[in-house]
Amino acid sequence: MDLVEALAHGVVVLDGGMSTALEAAGHDLSDDLWSARLLLTDPDAVRAAHLAYYRAGASVAITASYQASFSGFARRGISEDETARLLRSSVALARSAASDVDGQRWVAASVGPYGAVLADGSEYRGRYGLTRRELVEFHRPRVEVLRDAGPDVLAVETIPDVDEASAVLEVVRGSGVPMWLSYSVRGDRTCAGQPLEEAFGVVSGVDEVIAVGVNCCAPEDVAEAVAVARRVTGLPVVVYPNSGETWNARERSWTGDGGGFAVSAGQWADAGTRLVGGCCRTGPDAIAVLARELAARS
């Protein structure tokens, strides 16, 4: 069964934050490459994080390629050929971890926003001052390498504004590779301030899009986004919010009270969500709770 077929049969559980699992295992990610650095320095740690999420009940692992890009690795003196190898390895590591567990598992290749490469919190603002063509040129080589690595789906995630979403859709359109589009939002708008109706509407006519939704947002922002996504697109919805804590990009720290987002997952599923997981500050324990909550409702 492929992932599209699975979505027609019920809710599919995603993993949690890659960085959360890696930091819990003792890895220092205070570096511009963030979790992507471990693709180079400690790939076994990445595989172990995927395996922990699969064992916790996730059916989909999102690769560690969120912060990986040709320009970002080039600043570290890494060649284009080596960058391509690292991107391919992100898919292979998740696939390898899936082989250690029973049951159907899928791999989603993470395509993070341009702002993630800047490592200054720009992915929570958008509007980078780049033209659409520049955004297309940034995303195209990474998307093409990840696509050819054989994931089940491209996870175009944490996109802060419609302009960047449109640029990635231009790259993916016609490729035949399934993708989901997930925005970072505040309230009923993208992080760049555009209405969600406009944001979700850009997927019209792009056959590769199998789901739309939100991630890396407050849990309380999910319900409205699910309703708008369903109304505008009619597609399955994907949601993976943060734990409820807030990231301070300037201080590089989390504040607030996390936990408890899993209890809302059933309501999101009832409203049309078909892919549910966690993002920042949600580790394997949180995904285990989420998986149990959803299993109890099935």
UniProtKB/TrEMBL annotation:
Cofactor list: Zn(2+)
Domain Hcy-binding: 1-294
Name listed for the protein in its UniProt record: Homocysteine S-methyltransferase
Ligand binding (Zn(2+)): C216, C279, C280
A Pfam match: S-methyl_trans
Domain of life: Bacteria
PANTHER family: HOMOCYSTEINE S-METHYLTRANSFERASE-LIKE ISOFORM 1, ZGC:172121
Gene3D superfamilies: Homocysteine-binding-like domain
SUPFAM superfamilies: Homocysteine S-methyltransferase
NCBIfam families: PRK09485.1 (NF007020)
Keyword GTP-binding: no
Organism whose genome encodes this protein: Lentzea cavernae
Keyword annotations of the record: Metal-binding, Methyltransferase, Transferase, Zinc
